[in-house]
Amino acid sequence: MSSFAPLPDPSTPLSRESAALAFADILDARTSEDAIADFLIALSDRGETSIEIAEAARALRDRLIPIDAPAGAIDVCGTGGDGHHTLNVSTAVSLVVAASGVPVAKHGNRAASSKAGAADTLEALGLNMERAGSMAQATLADLGICFLFAANHHPAMKRITPIRRRIGKRTIFNLMGPLASPAHVTRQLIGIARPDYAQTYAEALGSLGTEAGLIVSGEEGLDEVSGAGPTIAISVGQLSMPVRIAPEDAGLPRHPIAAIHGGDPAYNAAALRRLLQGEHGAYRDAVLINAAAALMVAGHADSLTEGAEEAAETIDKGLANTLLDCWIAYT
C-alpha cells in the first residue's frame, strides 16, 4: 500500500520553502489526487501569493522539456479565461513583432475557454501544428518565430490536467503558462484577466529572473492591453512604464471590445490574414498597441507611439504576412 506525502495547510500563506516542497510533491505524484484538489481549491479561495505563484512556476520550469532560443527572444502570452472571446490578438502580435526583428517563442495551446486558441487559428491559416511543435527550435532559429505547444513541453502536467477538470474552477495552474516558457525567455509581455491581481503576478515574475517584463490587464478584465480603455500595466526588471496606459498613449483611437469579437478558428484566421494584408480597424489597432508594448519589452522601442509606428510599418510593408507564409511553407 503506497503512502503519500502530506501537503501543507493552505489556509495561511506558505513560506517559500513550504511552497517549493508542496509543488514538487504535486508534480512528482508524491501526494494523492484528492489532497491535490483540496489544496488547489483552498489556495484559490484564499488567493495565491506571489511566493506561491513563483514557486509553482519554478517547480514547473524544473520539469519542462526546454528548447534553445536566440538572445533577446520574447514571449507574448496571456493567462486566458477573460471571457471576452476576442480575435487572436497575441498571435497576431507575435507575427508582427517577429517580423520586426525580435525572435518570438510563442507558448500556447488550443482553446480552453474560447472558441479559437492560438493553435486552432494558426492551424486554420494552414500551419501544420504537429510539425510546428516538433520543429519549434528550428523555426525559431531560422524564421525568428515558433509555437511551443504546452503539452509537448510539460509532461509533469499530465497528472494535473484531469484533477483541474474535476475541480472545474480556476486554480494556480491557470496562471502558469506564461511563467513556464520552454524557451526560458527573460523578456515577456503577459496579459492577465484580473486587474486586481496584476501587482501580485508581477512580483512573482520579478522573482523568477526576468530581465524585462510587463504585466497588463485591461480594466474590463481583458488579458491583454485593451483597445477600448485603460489598462493596468506593471513593469518588471529593466522596463519602466506608467501603471495605466490607454490607446491614445500610442496615438491610437479607442474601439469597443465588441468590435474585435471573434468566432471559430476559420473566422479568426480570416480576420488575422486580412489584418496582415493591411486591413484597418479595431483589430489592427488592438494589435498595434499590444505590439508596441512588446517592442518596448524587447528594447526595440522607447515609447508606445514609436512601437505602434514600427508595428504599423511592419504590417504595411507586408513583412508579417510574408513571415506567416514562410512559416506555413516551412512546416
From TrEMBL:
InterPro entries documented for this protein: Anthranilate_Pribosyl_Tfrase, Glycosyl_Trfase_fam3, Glycosyl_Trfase_fam3_N_dom, Glycosyl_Trfase_fam3_N_dom_sf, Nuc_phospho_transferase
Recorded metabolic or biological pathway in which this protein acts: Amino-acid biosynthesis; L-tryptophan biosynthesis; L-tryptophan from chorismate: step 2/5
Binding site for anthranilate 1: G78, N109
Note accompanying the cofactor annotation: Binds 2 magnesium ions per monomer.
Keyword Magnesium assigned: yes
Positions bound to 5-phospho-alpha-D-ribose 1-diphosphate: 78, 81-82, 86, 88-91, 106-114, 118
GO biological process, one term: L-tryptophan biosynthetic process
Domain Glycosyl transferase family 3 N-terminal, first and last residues per copy: 13-63
GO CC field: cytosol
GO molecular function terms attached to this record: anthranilate phosphoribosyltransferase activity; magnesium ion binding
Domain annotation Glycosyl transferase family: ranges: 73-320
Cofactor: Mg(2+)
Catalytic activity: N-(5-phospho-beta-D-ribosyl)anthranilate + diphosphate = 5-phospho-alpha-D-ribose 1-diphosphate + anthranilate
Residues where Mg(2+) 2 binds: D223, E224
Top class in the EC scheme: transferase
Top-rank taxon, per record: Bacteria
UniProt keywords, alphabetically: Amino-acid biosynthesis, Aromatic amino acid biosynthesis, Glycosyltransferase, Magnesium, Metal-binding, Transferase, Tryptophan biosynthesis
Residue numbers binding anthranilate 2: R164
Documented EC number(s): 2.4.2.18
Assembly and binders: Homodimer.
HAMAP family reported for this sequence: TrpD
Entry similarity comment: In the C-terminal section; belongs to the anthranilate phosphoribosyltransferase family.
Protein name as it appears in the record: Anthranilate phosphoribosyltransferase
Species for this entry: Sphingomonas panacisoli
